[in-house]
């Protein structure tokens, strides 16, 4: 009886391990954000992508999940989904920053439009 209880607790504990955050690509109110807010959200999306990529590596949680290997597959699938969502969020924010002539983190500053000499 104790072994069944231990296995049930182990399975519940392993399934409750943290998994990467999957962000929304487009959030309500994104168009109303200022350049600074867009840049902060861009940095947050980059951080979420980095954290998701780290979950795919050899972590303490993944080593513990070897006892219950289907959870490793779920973690990897969730990490891939989180990384794709973060990339989509960054693209969306980059488009908004371009429209507003904001500097995009990690890129060259936007060049001002030059008038046509004709």
Number of strands: 0
Q: How many DSSP H or I helices?
A: 4
Give the helix proportion (percent range). 55-70%
Strand content: under 5%
Mean residue pLDDT: 77
Largest sheet: none
Structural class: mainly alpha
Task: Point out poorly predicted stretches.
Answer: none
Tell me what you see in this structure:
Helix content is 59%, strand content 0%. By secondary structure, it is mainly alpha-helical. The protein is elongated and about 65 Å long. The model has no long low-confidence stretch (mean pLDDT 77). The protein has helices at residues 2-15, 35-55, 60-64, 70-99.
At a glance:
It is built from four helices and no strands. By secondary structure, it is mostly helical. Helix 2 (35-55) packs antiparallel against helix 4 (70-99).
Q: What are the main properties of this structure?
A:
118 residues, mainly alpha, 4 helices, 59% helix, 0% strand
